[in-house]
Amino acid sequence: MATLRNLFDLAVSAMRALFPWPRGTELIVGPVVLVAWILIGAFATAGEFPTRAIDFNREIRPILSNACFQCHGPDVNKRKGVNRPFRIDTEEGAFADLGGYTAVVRGKPDESELIARIVSDDSSEVMPPAKNGKKLSRKDIELLSEWVRQGAPYAKHWSLIPPSRPPIPEVVATSWPRGAIDRLLLARLEAEGIAPSPEADRGLLIRRLSFDLIGLPPTPEEVDIFQTDRRPDAYERLVERLLASPHFGERMAVGWLDLVRYADTVGYHSDVERSISPYRDYVIRAFNENLPFDRFTIEQLAGDLLPDPTVAQRVASGYNMLGLTTEEGGAQPKEYLARYAADRVRNVGSVWMGATLGCCECHDHKYDPYSARDFYAFAALFADLQQEGVGTPKPTLSLATPEQARETATLDARLIGLQEAVAASPRGPTEFAEELEELKLARSQLEQTIRKTIVAISGPPRLTRVLRRGDWMDETGEVVEPAVPHSLKPLDVPRARRASRLDLAHWLISPDHPQTSRVVVNRLWKRYFGTGLSDSLDDLGSQGEWPTHPELLEWLAVEFQQSGWDVKQMVRLMVTSSAYRQSSHPRENLAAIDPANRLYARQASFRLEAEAIRDNALAVSGLLVSAIGGESVRPYQPAGYWRFLNFPTRSYVPSAGAGQYRRGLYTHWQRTLLHPGLIALDAPSREACTASRPISNTPQAALTLLNDPSYVEAARVLAERVLTEGGTDDGTRLNWLWRLVLCRPPAGREQSIASALLEQHRGEYRADPSSASRLLGVGQKTVDSRHDRAELAAWTSVTRAILNLDETMTRD
Fold first, then answer.
1. Residue ranges per domain, the chain?
2. Whose CB has fewer CB within 10 Å in the chain, the N or C terminal residue?
């Protein structure tokens, strides 16, 4: 009877939207409507009507957020209503007195103004207004009506509730799961009637793991060892070896530097260089040493505020100075200080909270419980940072090596002694003038070789006001004290003391903070499975995507905290799971059921990042210089690319020697004119937080990979390796090349095509030696004179082709 009544009420509500009738005639019209509805097949089955408990966060909040919150949400200045402003984002608002009635009447959709408005055919009353272009679907109307009928229960947004460990479900296929991750995924797959994919072969697994954990391909020797290792823990041993590699930190650093918008230049106006590369080294070292993420957070946000901070902690505090700055002559310092403050709020909100706090710079957030006042109170937490509004921050921390420190001390001692001698000499400085100048020059030259970096320096805090509409010239706004958003647990700070960046850092990693652990594990999941459990990596708010597996996200978040914020342990859990080891091969039945692979019934297949594509080419060619850390380097770049960089004008000089063959992580990051090879492969300018890089497929990318000198030179040096190490006949050499680059032998058709290509180019280069010379002359690396030039050029054509295969650039 209850189901029939539900069906009847929904029929009345939905049909009123199509054919309005006077209120109070439902008992007459309703049954007729219901019968007509069934007859015309408006719904295929009664099973489409919700008869279970409606989940507010998963089913109702997204509808309201998309269609209603803009005018009836958190933003008090934009909130609309007939008699008085009305809000639907809170339970109090939904049941507030609007002048003799409420928008929602619990259990009675027929009497609820909310439902009446969304089904109205009156253009002056229907909600959302037609001009908004957000008309609700039939399914949305059904859900809202059923939600009201069930009493319109509200719930706090899921990402604002501290995570709690869920129970681990029972599964039927008990032999497949290796742990909680697998059981939580498999329970959903079994509910959908889907089986996981088989495990990938070992050649593919070691290639996948190598790219995922260190960003470099495995060597043929490493592939052979893994493929022949029959120990039951061979895979786990491989994982441990890669986690212990110093290249693990480099691989992890790429994603982190995208988040915190690390770059070698200031960004605004002339985009001049600044000294900040030691911060990058700190990040690499932190991941390699498995610095717990809570300490990683504290040291970056407030390393300078710790008691007796170490050099590394002071370097880490350089995070606070990574934003864009200007030195334009006509710039207004106050305007840019406001910009810098807003940039810090946006970045911390994105990186640690998965929150779009930047929406509050000019007005209250339209979808999430953050106000403009929250925004400026959050900015006040950084008001102690000593920074000029106009001007490039100067490096204040010297990082001399032990040898440089000894040499500095020696020179300083000699200078002091000489100055004392000058003071004692009746002839004054004349007697020692030449020696004094030599010492000063040596001291100056030594100083120039010592690395320096920009770090945070705390001082008296600036006054912080709420800037109405973000207007930096408006000085009428309320003065605010440092605080976190009002909708979250407040900072634990005594009333007598001003809150600091250190308090903020501790708040972000406190056990009951709802966001940080979820944000971090969600991004790690994306790295190893292709998409995040919530695919909106930088927005876990109302406009973000509901997690596909909320229980799994909760479990991972709690596990991360309780492991002591152990990053390597979290990575280990993910990559040793059965889910991670699945084949990425598409299955026909999955294409229709789960085309985006959000159920994770197979592994993901995606193109490598820009840096990894170039690193791979350098690695297989043997050119890669594997030194860790250091100053930024400059790969080959088209002549004249920097011609628009002015004030001052600059010329680009590619790095010579080892610097040319460093990993892409160390490439000079010029924000306004990023290296074209990075742009072509979707690297960000790092002017703002980038949580997920896009993956495009463009002609520019293909042309870059074919013609950029880095790739042409790598192909030529790889061809030299083929001729030197690959055997004595074409077939053996092609097999060696495939195993080196793709970790597998070539298929029969591949070998035939490659052989034909090789023969074609042998003929072309023998007939045109100058063309071979031009090809082989690309790059700084001297050509191996032991090889016939036409033969080497022909093999270079083959290696260029294999380096440009989709499989070569794809992590499967």
1. 2-155, 250-392+459-514, 406-449, 707-811
2. N
